């Protein structure tokens, strides 16, 4: 484990009370780990905002009966700069498919892929879960 440095933080009492209540509810046993997680979360947002190499999970729901949609979605995925690591397809009911697309690559390429999938007619919902490759994150 890396060397830990202690430092003090000044904060309004009411804000700290709300923070303590929230982290207790989430199951943290001390403020330090909760604070470290907040820092990590913000660093992952920076990775995405500065177009670094990241990991991401795109979920997509669509009706596979929509004319030519499946071919269109495949074309988009094949033209996605190799960011797709794996996909899983779940037939949810007679009409609806859920596709989970695991990606790794430039944040901008992953966002672009998600936007193109979302813009395809017949796609009902697309979400990008912004994750990290973990490198450089303690
Ligand atoms: Ni299906």
Radius of gyration computed on alpha carbons: 20 Å
Quaternary status: single chain
Strand content: 25-35%
Instruction: Give the CA-CA distance, first to last residue.
Output: 9 Å
Helix content: 40-55%
- Record field, number of beta strands: 4
Order of strands side by side in the largest beta sheet?
2-3-1-4
> What is the average per-residue confidence, as pLDDT, rounded to a whole number?
95
Indicate the low-confidence ranges by residue numbers: none
Order of helices and strands: HHEHEEHE
**Number of contiguous helices:** 4
Largest sheet: 4 strands, antiparallel
Would you tell me the structural class of the helices and strands? alpha+beta
Small molecules (ligands, ions, cofactors) in the structure: nickel (II) ion
Q: Based on CA inertia axes, which overall geometry fits?
A: elongated
């Amino acid at each position: 484990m890396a060397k830990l440095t202690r430092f003090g933080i000044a904060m309004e009492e009411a804000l700290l009370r709300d923070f303590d209540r929230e982290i207790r509810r989430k199951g943290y046993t001390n403020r330090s780990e909760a604070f470290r997680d907040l820092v990590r979360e913000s660093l992952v947002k920076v990775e995405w905002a500065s177009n670094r190499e990241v990991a991401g999970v795109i979920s997509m729901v669509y009706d596979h009966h929509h004319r030519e949609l499946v071919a269109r979605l495949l074309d988009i995925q094949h033209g996605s700069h190799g960011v797709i690591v794996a996909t899983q397809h779940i037939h949810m009911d007679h009409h609806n498919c859920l596709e989970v697309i695991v990606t790794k690559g430039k944040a901008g390429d992953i966002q672009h892929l998600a936007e193109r999938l979302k813009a395809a007619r017949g796609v009902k919902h697309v979400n990008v879960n912004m994750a990290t490759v973990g490198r450089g994150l303690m």
